[in-house]
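Annex B.
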Amino acid sequence: MADATYDSNNIFAKILRGEIPSHRVYEDDAVLAFMDVMPQGPGHTLVVPKAPSRNLLDADPTTLGPLFAIVQKVARAVKKTFGADGVTVMQFNEPASGQTVYHLHVHIIPRFEGVPLKPHSGQMEKPEILAENAGKIRAALSN
Ligand code: 5GP
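HIT family protein: predicted structure tokens.
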């Protein structure tokens, strides 16, 4: 089977173009970070490069440095914001791995001792909670 290609109508491409709303926490020329609508824990944030790629496997290597610099920045901010004990950073490639949205993205999830992750793509969070959490993370990022 031929390798799957990038589809510019995926949901994160629409978020990047501003065609559908998101709770944004960080943006620069190369990267956008926003809240996951079905968080696996409070403060679950997604970081995406603006350059199109389906996942890590087809990404231009030059997008990865700027992307992971912001992953680190956001991971530090969410750990501080939520008083977390640790941070899980996850990234999936192709359906067999659990990928469901086909624009490269990295999950950042604050973790607490003894508290398991909620299911992947589980329950939608209330918009007001996402907005509140996004505001707290933005504040931590600006300090
Ligand atoms: P994947 O399995 O592709 O790594 O994860 C995709 C993630 O995107 C899931 O955690 C899911 O909750 C999240 N997600 C799916 N649709 C939307 C959406 O419309 N907006 C936002 N902010 N997150 C989404």
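The two ends are 49 Å apart (CA to CA). The chain has three helices and five strands. Further annotation is deferred to the next reporting cycle.
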